[in-house]
């Protein structure tokens, strides 16, 4: 998106607009993404609603989900109603489990969760895994 001239922001992770070159911004984004840790006590739905307040109508929000978090369904509906687009990049949770371990959660890639996302207005993309045949 950055190469196409689109402004790329990370609400909640950065607070000031960036005014450097595209190359500098790309490096900054790489560092920002590498530093992300799943250490928030807030669920994804709460974080989506918080991000909604910082973005103008017409903006797009991309979320990456591995586990079917029920909090995102009403949050996406509210965000879409406010004039923002939500793109859910969904992953199959089973691809992240340890050999011999069973993950006791519903995967974000499960058909029923994907249907719920789409029913409230999200666009969904099932993400391929590196090395998996497409």
Q: Gist?
A:
With 134 residues, this protein is an alpha/beta fold.
Notes on the protein architecture:
It contains four helices and three strands, in the order ααβαβαβ. With 134 residues, it is an alpha/beta fold. A three-stranded parallel beta sheet has the order 1-2-3, covered by helices on one side. β1, α3 and β2 form a beta-alpha-beta unit. The model has no long low-confidence stretch (mean pLDDT 85).
Key phrases:
134 residues, alpha/beta, three-stranded parallel sheet, 4 helices, 12% strand
What is the mean pLDDT?
85
- Write down the secondary-structure element order: HHEHEHE
Please report the distance between the alpha carbons of the first and last residues: 24 Å
Spatially, the strands of the biggest sheet line up as 1-2-3
Task: Based on Cα principal axes, name the global outline.
Answer: globular
Instruction: State which percent range the strand residues make up.
Output: 5-15%
How would a crystallographer describe the biggest sheet? 3 strands, parallel
**Class computed from helices, strands and strand pairing:** alpha/beta
Task: Determine Rg (CA atoms, Å).
Answer: 16 Å
Q: Name the poorly predicted regions.
A: none
Fraction of residues in helices? Answer: 25-40%
- Total helical segments: 4
Strand tally: 3
């Amino acid at each position: 998106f950055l190469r196409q001239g689109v402004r790329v922001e990370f609400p909640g992770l950065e607070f000031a607009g960036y005014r450097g070159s595209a190359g500098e911004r790309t490096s900054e984004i790489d560092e920002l993404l590498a530093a992300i840790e799943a250490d928030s006590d807030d669920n994804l739905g709460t974080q989506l609603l918080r991000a909604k307040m910082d973005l103008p109508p017409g903006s797009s929000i991309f979320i990456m989900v591995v586990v079917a978090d029920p909090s995102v369904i009403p949050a996406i509906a509210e965000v879409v109603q406010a004039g923002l687009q939500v793109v859910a990049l969904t992953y199959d949770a089973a691809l992240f489990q340890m050999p011999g371990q069973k993950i006791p959660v519903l995967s974000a890639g499960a058909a029923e969760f994907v249907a719920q996302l789409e029913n409230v207005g999200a666009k969904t993309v099932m993400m391929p895994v590196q090395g998996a045949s497409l």
